[in-house]
Every structure is written in structure tokens, then in C-alpha cells.
Design a protein that fits this description.
The protein has about 80 residues and is mostly helical. Helices cover about 60% and strands about 0% of the residues. The protein has helices spanning about 15-30, 35-45, 45-55, 60-70, 75-80. The chain starts with 12 loop residues before the first helix and ends with a helix.
Length: about 80
Amino acid sequence: MIRAVPASAGGQGRVKDEIVQINKIKMARFLAQRTQDEIQLLTGIDQSRLSRLERGIFQPKPEELELLAEALNCEISDLK
């Protein structure tokens, strides 16, 4: 399962913490039983960007987190 690693653990914590955030977005989408294409239609966030957010290539903007939380019927804090 997903777990955060403190930044002090081997100097890799920051990267791993960011991966946890992205995995939470993907997990929320999975739990909501939505595809990336469905989330694109609901939020206006391009499917390719959503894919990159989930893979940790990009960090979500605050406004994207708001849109995703609404589309996934969860709290913004659930995605962080």
C-alpha cells in the first residue's frame, strides 16, 4: 500500500512524499471507478496531463486539486 517516508530517511523522502501524493490521486480515481477520460470530461483537465499527474511527472495546481476533489467526490486533503 502507499506510505510516506520521512525526508530524513536516506535523503529520498521528498521525492517519495511527492509520489505518495500522486498515488493518492490515482487511488481516489480508482475508488471512484472513473477513467481518466471521464475525469477529463468532468474537470477539463487533459487526459495526458492527468496521466502525468498520476505518474508524478507534474505536481497538481491548487485549482486542479479542487476540480479533482469535486469530480472524485472527496476532499482536497484526500488527494494530498
